[in-house]
Specification:
With about 280 residues, this protein is an alpha+beta fold. About 45% of the residues lie in helices and about 15% in strands. The chain has one domain. The strands form 4 sheets. Strands 1-3-2 form a 3-stranded antiparallel beta sheet, covered by helices on one side. A two-stranded antiparallel ribbon has the order 4-9. It has a two-stranded antiparallel ribbon with strand order 5-8. The chain is globular and about 50 Å long. The N and C termini lie far apart (about 45 Å).
Length: about 280
Amino acid sequence: MTLGPVASLILEGEDLETNFSHDETVSIDLNLKVYDETLTGQILVSDRPAGLADVVPVARSLSDEIARRTIEYAKSTGRNIPCKKGCAACCRYLVPVSAPEVFRIWDEIQVIKPEHQRNVLSAFVSASQRILDAGPPPVPQGRGASGEDPQDATDAINRWYAEIGVDCPLLERETCTAYSFRPIACREHMVTSSAEHCLPAKGKQVKLTEPPFSIVEALGRLAAEAENLDIESVMLPFAPSWRQINHERARRTWPAPVLFECFVAIIHDLSARRRLAAA
């Protein structure tokens, strides 16, 4: 397990400093359209082996910057985002976690204080058991002979999860105990409706402000392309057990520049696709 930095995100206007001490680095350019502005910068990558988990810190930083710009854009168009510390209504929603995030979160749990670690892992076990006791979710039906919209199936699974009433394993006293390494899906979740509409029972009244592209989706595609597998998504409460089952995959490495170049190419592709869809 290595939690040391492999890469740094440097946005335009920031000092070109890295927090890792390696002589050889590779610079990968970023040029992304975020609403009416362009997000320009680069990722400085250490030329050494890296695993999928090593991409996550940069993905989080990029997600945070996109979220910041999303909030600014919403405010400029007269919308308010009420999300703030102490509001944990969305912490009862289904949170999808990509394989790289699962690997990273597990590593980060391993280095927290033993007493807190036991409490966190116990919370994951309890949440997982509640989900298993509730029985399987509705089986998604693709649009086909049934004529069902895939989004309807997704909504049905989300309602099923909300009805179970499972608190996020990282939630304690209505506060995230792991805010610095919370899932990227949480970072991308922003609403402009009233906070009370975020309660699971009123989920249909939630008005979301979606980012221009999803870093969660980018990480999922990265893992799929790197490992030649289908895109995977794990329910957050099952993350530790899923990581234990897939421990060999968590240890797999590639040249770091190769991983990050693939990640950036996927992000640029997602950004271009979203712009075409909106045109």
